[in-house]
Amino acid sequence: MNKDQVKGATKEATGKVQEAAGKLVGSKEQQAKGIGKQVAGSTQKNYGDAKEDIKDATKR
Question: pTM of this prediction?
Fold first, then answer.
């Protein structure tokens, strides 16, 4: 795993918590911020996955 995969997964998890907290307190703003963090985290994780795939492919 590389740092982008780890940071992305962490952002995704943080976003899920923030979205759930927003739902709990009825804050649409917090829910939206949570969803935004999830998307950013997923994007960063996918970038990290692509980097790993490229690294693995060049080793062959």
Answer: 0.89
Q: What is the C-alpha separation between 39 and 33, in angstroms, rounded?
A: 10
Asked if residue 56 lies in contact with residue 35, where contact means CB atoms within 8 angstroms, the answer is no
- The pair of three-digit structure tokens given for residue 56, joined into one six-digit string: 């693995």
pLDDT in tens, 33-52: 999 999 999 999 999 999 99
Task: Give kind and range of the element (H or E) at residue 24.
Answer: helix 3-25
- Side-chain-facing half-sphere of 3: CA atoms under 13 Å: 0
Q: Which amino acid is at 30?
A: Q
